[in-house]
Amino acid sequence: MILFDRVSFRYKSNEETSFAIREVSFSCRQNLIHGFIGGNGSGKSTYARLIAGLLHPEAGKIEVCGLDTSAEDAQIHRKVGIIFQNPDNQIVGTTVEEDIAFGLENLAIPTNDMPEKIQQIAEEMGIENLLKKPVHHLSGGQKQLLCIASVLVMQPEWLIFDEPTSHLDPWSRRNFWKMLEILKQQRQVGIIVISQVSDDFENFDSIRLFADGDLVFTGSPEELKVANMADGLIHLPEKWQFEKLREAENA
Amino acid sequence: MLITFSPKESFLYSINPVIKGLITLFLIIAFSVIASGPVELGILLATVVIFSLLGRVDLLPIIFSLRKIFFLLFIVGLIQGFSQGEFDFLLALEAILRIVGVFFSAGIFVTISSQTELMYFWEQTFRPLALFGLPARELALVMVIAVRFLPVILSEIDRIRIAQMARGAKLSGGFGLSAVKSLLPLMIPTLSLAIVRAGDLALAMEARGYCVSRSRTRFRHYRVEFIDLLGLLLCLGIIFALMKF
Ligand SMILES: Nc1ncnc2c1ncn2[C@@H]1O[C@H](COP(=O)(O)OP(=O)(O)OP(=O)(O)O)[C@@H](O)[C@H]1O
Ligand SMILES: [Mg+2]
Question: How far is the C-alpha of B96 from the C-alpha of B113, rounded, in Å?
């Protein structure tokens, strides 16, 4: 469970801009895929960092699995895995296995237990034959799988993806969603996916729409479809727009 | 071609990271102050090259990268050559060999040390600083991130240079101040990009539980073995032998 209780936040280095989170409250249940959507600069990544304990609220309280993110940094980093947009800026190791090991080292897992855990997670993500490879020889999709493996190996209870599908081709995108479904069912984790790709919307169990730091919509994809959100806030999937036109025609 | 770590199996690669660093340090000192005259420098450089070839180090990227400091070599050669009035070829050669030697030593170190080894190296070497109340681990982290992004920065410079040349900028010509000036427009986007990337990496490391002041276990253990000490002694021996020579 993630709980936002009247949370306020603004970037110190950036006080003159209008962007600010003002007394926002909501909660996210585990075992669901939550979609965070919104235009550029609407605050999606900021929310992700707040949940991951990388930023702390100015006022109000954020709880993840019952822990206060401002008070218990170390525990939060362990419970929340976050996969950033650009794989190149988050891979720490030189080889695939070293990168997966990085999180285990930080958890102070005994050295002897590491190889087994690394092998296991690599098999789960289908990258077991890349373990010895230098990371700069991986393709974009493989790098993303590595980032996910490196986070999953720490057994987090929440997984946050910051725009994971924006640089995947349609085919890899479908595989990505299949993988998420499997993760959700097998690992019992809560998943948050930040996305601006309208084709992703139907894969969410629940959607939150942000605009300029505010939460302006919460509901299922079905509800978003009929919600008549103001134009310009989001771009709905072509399919939905087409269906609406058809309905209007029939009416 | 960039000088980056390329994993291989050999005696050089398997030396303890701290010993690798020490040997590199000694070689750099030897090249810059101890060895004198083109003959000594030449022998030392040849020894370094032979050992790296035996250790299966791929020297090609390092040799190609010499092009990037060609201008520096040229200027230093000129200045040193003319330092006694008449142009003295031996003096010029000596100065150039010193720089090439230091460049090779550092390049080989980067080629045979993985990221994890470098991180270990900096953490160990900065550890004594903690005795003076300095934030040793934080400083080590800064070094790690800097080293991690050096290849990225270099390739970025190349990329931007090609983009600027495609738009008609003349960046390859010119000497002296004008050459430096023409590089400035490259430095600013490159540096700001590097800073953003380093910030992102630091954030990602924190998210994965890296905390400089907390103790962590290690995937690989680096013990100092007898063979490592032998390597260190061998290196010192060669340098001293050269001094007597
Ligand atoms: N580190 C920072 N310091 C200061 N201001 C920031 C920082 N990061 C983001 N901002 C500002 O905060 C606002 C929200 O940024 P955020 O990255 O959360 O948006 P986003 O919804 O993720 O956008 P995008 O879709 O472009 O990724 C923007 O106006 C941005 O300029
Ligand atoms: Mg973002």
Answer: 26
pLDDT in tens for each of the 251 residues of chain A? 999 999 999 998 877 777 889 999 999 999 999 999 998 999 999 999 999 999 999 999 999 999 999 998 889 999 999 999 888 889 888 789 999 999 999 999 999 999 999 999 999 999 999 998 888 788 888 999 999 999 999 999 999 999 998 878 888 889 999 999 999 999 889 999 999 888 899 999 999 999 999 999 999 999 988 887 766 777 888 888 888 888 888 87
Which of B4, B212, B42 minimizes the C-alpha distance to B123? B212
What homologous superfamily does CATH list for A2-250?
A: P-loop containing nucleotide triphosphate hydrolases (3.40.50.300)
A213 and chain B: CB distance < 8 Å anywhere? Answer: no
Which residue ranges make up each domain of chain B? 17-127+223-241, 136-207
Q: Do A90 and B204 touch (CB under 8 A)?
A: yes
Ligand 1 neighbourhood includes A195 CB (under 6 angstroms): no
B182 inside 8 A of chain A by CB: no
- For chain B, what's the residue count? 245
ipTM above threshold 0.90: no
Spatial distance between the Cα atoms of B242 and B45, rounded to a whole number of angstroms: 12
d(CA B209, CA A78): 7
A162 CB near a chain B CB, below 8 Å?
no
Ligand 1: atom nearest CA of A210 is 21
Pair A11, A50: CB distance under 8 Å: no
Whether B208 and A136 lie within 8 Å, measured CB to CB: no
pTM for the model: 0.78
B66's tokens: 């010499």
Give φ, ψ of A25 to 5 degrees: -130, 135
Structure tokens at B145: 């991130």
Conformational region of residue B203, where left means phi above 0, alpha means psi within -120 to 50, and beta covers everything else: alpha
With a 6 A CB cut-off, is A79 part of the ligand 1 pocket? no
Pairwise CB contact (< 8 Å): A93 & B210: no
Residue A197 amino acid letter: V
Nearest by CB to residue A54, choosing from B203, B219, B221, is: B203
